[in-house]
Amino acid sequence: MRFFSRSLGSLTASVATVLVGIAPVWSAPTFFVAPGTDPDLDLAWRSLAPVIFEQDFDSLATATPFSVGPVSITATEVGTGQPLVLFPGSWGVTSSPGTVFGQALLPQSGNVPTLFTLSQPVEGFGLWIFDDFNSTGADFSMTVNGVTSPALTTLHIPGGGVAGFLGVHDPAGISEVTITMSTGVFYEMDHVQVFGVSGTAAPEPATLALLLPFAVGVIARRKK
């Protein structure tokens, strides 16, 4: 019986070590980068969840904080700390939720990164980005949990341009999102979307590793 217990202990330790080791791989964010003006650019991201919460800013009087379903989000400029403002527009691309560019979020200082801080973790975060002030293209990226997305590279569209859609899925939980524009002058963001609000995320491998010894212990006692 002692040998059996020691073997179980060794097995538990080994499995726990493996689970902790693969935690970063399991929880790595998956990004969705879709440049262009097609109103269905966000469909692949939206297909990950049956319920999507969304904010299009068209009926808001202030830009931040704003609500996306049960989640409250603040949007501030990285470096200056200034809150983003609302930028009214009269044109846009029509998507299934509504007008992509009716009223959108605008960093006051121009080309500075934006930090979105969420009141509770979510599994998915997405938004549309615009570069209508620029005469050339622009590059955008999204950083979540220390990982940065591939560049969303856009082309100039005469009269204004929708840059495209940036989304991310991370079952480990998303509490902060940073949007960076590497080229250009100003940019706007619209249709902020989230899914998998806190309480629905799957447990991380590190958490499972902590629970494993307890589960093995229960099994061992039953065998006795």
TL;DR of this structure?
With 224 residues, this protein is α+β, with helices and mostly antiparallel strands. The protein is built from 3 helices and 12 strands, in the order αβαβββββββββββα.
Note the topology.
Layout: H1 2-26, E1 30-35, H2 43-46, E2 53-55, E3 66-68, E4 71-77, E5 85-88, E6 103-106, E7 114-130, E8 138-144, E9 147-148, E10 152-154, E11 162-181, E12 188-195, H3 205-223
Antiparallel strand pairs: 1-11, 2-12, 3-4, 4-7, 5-6, 7-11, 7-12, 8-9, 8-10, 8-11
Explain what the structure shows.
This protein is an alpha+beta fold. Helix content is 21%, strand content 38%. The strands form 2 sheets. Strands 1, 2, 3, 4, 7, 8, 9, 10, 11 and 12 form a 10-stranded antiparallel sheet that branches. The protein has a two-stranded antiparallel ribbon with strand order 5-6.
Order of helices and strands: HEHEEEEEEEEEEEH
Count of alpha/pi helices: 3
- Secondary structural class: alpha+beta
State mean pLDDT (0 to 100 scale).
76
In percent, how much strand structure appears in the residues?
A: 35-45%
Low-confidence sequence ranges:
2-9, 11-25, 94-98, 200-216
Q: What is the distance, rounded to the nearest whole angstrom, between the alpha carbons of the first and last residues?
A: 8 Å
State the major sheet: 10 strands, antiparallel
The tally of strands reads: 12
- Residue share in helices? 10-25%
Computed over alpha carbons, the radius of gyration is 22 Å
- Give the CA-based shape: globular
